[in-house]
Write a structure and sequence with these properties.
Layout lengths: L10 E5 L8 H17 L4 E4 L8 H10 L4 E3 L1 E2 L9 H12 L5 E3 L1 H4 L6 H13 L3 E4 L14 H10 L5 E4 L6 H10 L3 E4 L3 H4 L5 H12 L5 E2 L9 H14 L4 H16 L1
Parallel strand pairs: 1-2, 2-3, 4-5, 5-6, 6-7, 7-8, 8-9
Helix pairs in contact: 3-5, 6-7
Bound molecules: zinc ion (ZN).
């Protein structure tokens, strides 16, 4: 029987900070605001990832060590830098030596298609380490055509590597119903909620988000995230909280969205 007292901690499953080690002032200000918002909402932990090419994996892990009570990190893939095996070497280093809990692949920023062989190799290796892979699947400005970043490509990957847990960040943007279909087709796909509830405000996407949350809530496949500092955690949380109330969701299902699901993937 499930214990009544088992308390699930609250986690923001997608944050960044501004600044880097060449701009400490900006970095510290950003961290201060992050922790302030987390405290206010009783969010105990946040999953932090590099935001741009100025932020190295080393910098992110240093923050995670300094604030280990509040932060844990996912490294981001490194595709450049000489050797053909560089992406695997760097990822191994990030997991084994730096202690990252997962991998983020950002096809738009990295300029790499989800169909790229190196992406496939990383997904396979993540499965061997049993660490999850986040994919940014937000259709927006980037270095590859949107068609190379869509959730239906994640469906193919997940089928090929069923022992790797894959998270579609931003729920695939306006491709949200394709993301939903990919979840239905694969036990190893999860959806992360950041960014879209504000970005697509007033559009039909909001209805789709509500539909998918309602349909998947009890399956424990949805992860709360804010994409701080692009959007405030507080504003994001209050919009989702209203949605959870409208849907009359069970507390237990909300607890999994608010931390239980991502926690189960990194344990
Ligand atoms: Zn992000």
């Amino acid at each position: 029987m499930e214990s009544e007292v088992m308390k699930i901690i609250r986690i923001d499953g997608h944050v960044h900070v501004d600044g880097d080690f060449t701009n400490i002032e900006k970095l510290e200000k950003s961290l201060e605001l992050l922790f302030y918002e987390m405290d206010e909402l009783n969010i105990q932990k946040a999953l932090i990832m590099p935001n741009n090419f100025q932020q190295s994996n080393e910098m992110i892990i240093e923050l995670c060590k300094k604030y280990s009570d509040k932060l844990f990190g996912f490294c981001w893939a490194e595709f450049d830098g000489g050797l053909p095996q560089n992406h695997l070497v760097k990822f191994r280093y990030c997991v084994e030596k730096l202690g990252f809990k997962g991998l983020k692949i950002h096809p738009r920023y990295h300029g790499v298609s989800i169909k790229d062989k190196r992406v496939e190799e990383l997904v396979e290796l993540a499965g061997e380490y049993n660490v999850p892979v986040y994919f940014d699947c937000l259709p927006s400005k980037g270095r590859v055509p949107i068609q190379e970043t869509i959730p239906l490509l994640i469906d193919e990957l997940a089928m090929r590597y069923p022992s790797t847990n894959i998270v579609i960040a931003h729920m695939g943007g306006h491709h949200i119903l394709d993301s939903y279909a990919a979840v239905k087709n694969n036990d190893n796909i999860y959806l992360e909620l950041s960014n879209i509830i504000i970005r697509y405000s007033g559009s039909s996407v909001i209805k789709d988000i509500e539909f998918v949350i309602r349909e998947l809530a009890s399956e424990k496949r949805i992860i709360f995230g804010s994409d701080f500092p692009t959007y405030s955690i507080k504003e994001t949380y209050s919009l989702y909280n209203e949605m959870f109330s409208r849907l009359k969701m069970k507390n237990r299902d909300i607890e999994f969205i608010m931390g239980g699901t991502i926690n189960s993937l990194i344990e």
